[in-house]
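Can anyone check this?
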Amino acid sequence: MAEAPLLAVNGLIKRFGGLVATDQLDLEVGAAEVHALIGPNGAGKTTLIGQVAGELRPDAGSIHLTGRDITAEPVHRRCALGLARSFQITSVLRDFTVLENVALAVQARLGHSFRFWRNARRDPALTGPAGDILAQIGLAERAGMPAGALSHGEHRQLEIAMALATRPRLLLRDEPMAGMGPEESARMVEILRGLKGQVGMLLVEHDMDAVFALADRITVLVYGRAIASGTADEIRRHPDVREAYLGHDDGAH
């Protein structure tokens, strides 16, 4: 019997009034696979991410994580089952140190009360794993710095570290390169590449160089529908994709 995909979206529909933002969408992400979503503005990429994360309720269809139906599960239950989302705008605690931010994420995974967050600063059961994750993400030297003093790119690195602290099976990444310069984008690509094989990713990104460097498979959305899905080479050669998306210079958001 074939192993269930890490994520399976089947027949998903989401409407906002008369606008169909997700239109009978099917999509799968395999274990430890990087699956990128691309498409022009208004294609429905972020709406799909919101439904997978549990922030938006679909009007029809189903979402399964590791074979379990999570369509009606709340956000916190999806997190407990191994789903972690990072946002286009970072949501770290700016007055806390980099290490404290990640230690609190470890604390949340362990189910400890946030009333005892002060102890997180000194508890090696929290700071030890947090330090290991910072080293993996390239932020070890910033551990004692207030998060608010980080650069934009470092904020995005910290956000990944906090997501990894929850030990996710699937990361939802919504435009991780947004607002970055070339050097920061290249660093982020290397960080995400380093996670390949460890955790699955559903990636929304307008930087096509990053998409083609990272993605095992790519799905192209146009008006809420998937017009193509395949490897980077297959997507590059697909005539409908070239006409609807790759032939334009304005990118996708």
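Reply from J.R.: I decoded it. The beta strands are 7-16, 19-29, 34-38, 60-65, 68-69, 83-86, 170-174, 200-204, 217-222, 225-230.
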